[in-house]
Amino acid sequence: MTITADMVKDLREKTGAGLMDCKRALSDSSGDMEKAIDLLRQKGLATAAKKSSRVASEGLIGSYIHMDKLGVLVEVNCETDFVARTDDFRGLVKDIAMHIAAANPAYVSREDIPPEVIEREKEIYKAQVVNKPPQVVEKILEGKLEKFYSDTCLVDQVFIKDPEGKQKIRDLITGKIAKVGENIVVRRFTRFQLGEGVEKGQVCE
What we know:
This protein has 205 residues and is α+β, with helices and mostly antiparallel strands.
């Protein structure tokens, strides 16, 4: 049976599980929605969304240094110090720091983007699609904004270590929430690249 995007979306809304987890569950259940929900519940993935509203004030500040020329600091929060000390959580923080180093996101999520930045992007896109019907323009703007989010927002980026190139950082975190049983949030990050912003030949005071 063909698994459609609407089926995946419907399952995701019902369970709060990650996109790839929903797609896999539907595939394993031959498109049977109830069986797919049961599969996600068995794996603990269907409850991940419920945990996302809980306060996460513990966690770790992780780091990643690449060849002494590129460095990342990232704060990832969980609910308890017990989980923060586990190999699962530490591995997640390390993977996220490494991803930030490679993918260079500008924001943690789309909610962090200043409204004026989004408006500027929209104006640029509108200028590219003149003389088209309003409904067509709206669809194109929506698609271009989604592409902008996937390029600039950490949680919307495809995880660099995913061999299939489909799992987003958001899905990676959701899967870990289901496994450790606590809410997990990427709070902030900083990325440094040697010489960034300094023109060659420029004298530094």
